[in-house]
Amino acid sequence: MKIDILTLFPKMFDGFLTESIIKRAINAQKVTIEIHNFRDFSDDEHDSVDDTPYGGGAGMVLMPQPIFDCVESLRKENSKVILLTPSGVPYKQKKAYDLAKEEHLIIICGHYEGFDERITTLADMEISIGDYVLTGGEIPAMVLADSVIRLIPGVINEKSHIEDSFNENYLLDYPTYTRPSDFRGMKVPEVLLSGNHAEIAKWRYNESVKRTKERRPDLLK
Ligand code: ADE
């Protein structure tokens, strides 16, 4: 998979690309990620990327030209263009599975107070990572790329994401424990020490259901 990310703040991605599972996926050539500063595409003599909003109002608005030129230099037949905005469709694990099957993602990070509405005509989808407003689309781009890359076959042990919260059965994860079996008087549930795999599976399923009922009853609908 190839992922191109358009941003005004490329350095924000340094840690993301050079640590942990994403770094490993890049080294194993499961994914290629390129970060593009769309300021480099500005045809303005001052390299401007934003301007004041028509009709007045606070803040600056991203102009269409640099983003159009940048996307058009990258887009191919098989590309999916994603615009990150708090006004987008809420992001869910199901979408991560769908995106993990794509060959090429182009992710546009919005910034400042907003972007010129004509930029939305470039996008195949507008996505929000949640009902809160961040200073820009960079962290949402990392959230999206991370959730997709870990689903690319061979990036992590497949069994670990089959058992994830929000997989097909829409239950939250069950509680897990490791050594020691007694930490400051807090004991690991007996059943997990029993070696009885059928009982363990039953306990885990019941804990998942209980937790989902308590915390996310909306998922059980
Ligand atoms: N940009 C700012 N806030 C955002 C959000 N919640 N989701 C996607 N992009 C954003």
Task: Walk me through the structure.
- With 221 residues, this protein is an alpha/beta fold.
- It has two domains: 2-158, SPOUT methyltransferase, trefoil knot domain (Alpha/beta knot, 3-Layer(aba) Sandwich); 167-220, tRNA(m1g37)methyltransferase, domain 2 (Trp Operon Repressor, Chain A, Orthogonal Bundle).
- It is 32% helix and 20% strand.
- It is built from eight helices and ten strands.
- The strands form three sheets. A five-stranded parallel β-sheet has the order 2-1-6-5-8, sandwiched between helices. A three-stranded mixed β-sheet has the order 3-4-7, with no helix packed on it. The chain has a two-stranded antiparallel sheet with strand order 9-10.
- The radius of gyration is 21 Å and the shape is elongated.
- The chain starts with a strand and ends in a 6-residue tail after the last helix.
- 22% of the residues are buried.
- The protein binds adenine.
Low-confidence stretches: none
Rounded to the nearest angstrom, the distance between the terminal CA atoms is: 34 Å
Compute the gyration radius: what is it? Answer: 21 Å
Question: Largest beta sheet: what is the strand line-up?
Answer: 2-1-6-5-8
Look up the CATH topology of the largest domain.
Answer: Alpha/beta knot
Estimate what percentage of residues fall within beta strands. Answer: 15-25%
Mean pLDDT: 95
The geometry reads as elongated
CATH H-level superfamily of the largest domain:
SPOUT methyltransferase, trefoil knot domain
Major sheet size, sense and barrel closure: 5 strands, parallel
Helix content: 25-40%
Number of H/I helices:
8
CATH class of the largest domain: Alpha Beta
Order of helices and strands: EHHEEEHEHEEEHHEEHH
Which kinds of small molecule does this entry bind, naming each only once? adenine
Structural class based on helices, strands and sheet pairing:
alpha/beta
